[in-house]
Design a protein that fits this description.
Layout (H helix, E strand, L loop, with lengths): L1 H16 L3 E8 L2 E8 L2 E5 L14 H23 L4 E11 L8 E11 L3 H14 L1 H8 L8
Helix pairs in contact: 2-3
Length: 150
């Protein structure tokens, strides 16, 4: 009986951290509505249309790099909190190369600078650890399958 109770407690913990993330782009002439949602918490992101009127002024490669930088930034604060480190500043720069239209990105790299109330060694350990638990990074590293649903 104790094992069943323990299993159910673990199941509840896993379900509590599960996130469903959705992004929607609605585009027409001079209209670009971008919304994101995580577990029914939705918000809009302001990304204007291209100057031609159709499409987004920010391309997917740029947004991929924003996703990497944002994920790492947010996760630094999350992981620092677990270690009782107060991080006061995070700067993350991510880049990728796209060699041709339709080609997969390559040479995806990022670097981060953080400041906080811990020693340089503790901050470096925090950065290295966060690199191992950053969800967007781990998704790309795993080569996850992407499916078009019609």
């Amino acid at each position: 009986m104790g094992k069943v109770s323990s299993f159910r407690e673990n199941e509840l913990t896993l379900n509590a951290t599960k996130m469903k993330v959705t992004a929607t782009v609605e585009n027409s002439l001079h209209k670009n509505i971008v919304s994101v949602e995580t577990n029914e918490n939705s918000q809009q992101i302001s990304i204007p249309s291209k100057f031609t009127g159709y499409g987004s002024s920010v391309n997917g490669g740029e947004l991929l790099c924003v996703a990497l930088a944002t994920c790492f930034c947010n996760d630094i604060y999350r992981e620092a909190n677990k270690r009782n480190i107060k991080v006061t500043k995070v700067v993350v720069e991510a880049s990728a190369e796209f060699l041709a239209e339709g080609a997969a990105g390559s040479n995806i790299v990022y670097h981060a600078k953080i400041e906080g109330d811990a020693s340089n060694e503790e901050l470096l350990a925090l950065v290295k650890h966060t690199d191992t638990v950053a969800e967007v990074h781990n998704t790309l590293r795993s080569g996850v399958k992407i499916s078009l649903l019609l």
